[in-house]
């Protein structure tokens, strides 16, 4: 079990920015951010490969989200810019629990476990 704690989130107007982060007990090959809106399944929005910083983003968030990792602090951050109302959801970070190929498949929620508390992001129109 890996404990992860998310912090950040909040409410912003459309077009605004938010930054959130999470911490984990150890390193993993991949770390991801996933979001879940009410009544919806978790969906990956950003994932980062630790070895080289390669990142994968969902098409809907490209140009708006940036994932980063601080290995020394074991933290993963998600910078969210130019936010749309569609970004309203709970956001979670988690380590990958299976091998991930660089590509869209890195966003599959089933590849991630050990959810933190999550943070609420609300984007007003």
What would you note in describing this structure?
The mean pLDDT is 90. The strands form two sheets. A six-stranded mixed sheet has the order 2-10-9-4-5-6, with no helix packed on it. The protein has a four-stranded antiparallel sheet with strand order 1-3-8-7, with no helix packed on it. The N and C termini lie far apart (39 Å). With 125 residues, it is mostly beta strands. It contains no helices and ten strands. It is globular. The chain has strands spanning 5-7, 10-13, 18-23, 30-36, 43-49, 55-57, 65-70, 75-80, 89-95, 119-124.
CA-based gyration radius: 13 Å
Strand arrangement within the widest β-sheet reads: 2-10-9-4-5-6
Give the ordered list of helices and strands: EEEEEEEEEE
Task: Give the class from helix and strand content and strand pairing.
Answer: mainly beta
Q: Taking all residues together, what is the mean pLDDT? A: 90
Largest sheet: 6 strands, mixed
Beta-strand segment tally:
10
Question: Uncertain segments of ≥5 residues (pLDDT<50)?
Answer: none
Shape: globular
SS summary, helix count: 0
Which percent bin holds the helix content?
under 10%
Strand content: 35-45%
Alpha-carbon distance between the termini? 39 Å
Short description:
By secondary structure, this protein is mainly beta. It is 0% helix and 44% strand.
């Amino acid at each position: 079990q890996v404990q992860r704690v998310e912090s950040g989130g909040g409410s912003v107007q459309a077009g605004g920015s938010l930054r959130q982060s999470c911490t984990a007990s150890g390193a993993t090959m991949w770390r991801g951010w996933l979001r879940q809106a009410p009544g919806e399944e978790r969906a990956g929005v950003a994932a980062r490969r630790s070895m080289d910083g390669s990142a994968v983003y969902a098409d809907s968030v490209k140009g708006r989200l940036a994932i980063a990792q601080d290995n020394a602090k074991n933290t993963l951050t998600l910078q969210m810019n130019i936010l749309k109302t569609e970004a309203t959801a709970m956001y979670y970070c988690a380590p990958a629990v299976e091998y991930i190929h660089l590509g869209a498949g890195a966003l599959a929620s089933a590849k991630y476990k050990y959810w933190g508390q999550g943070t609420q992001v609300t984007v007003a129109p």
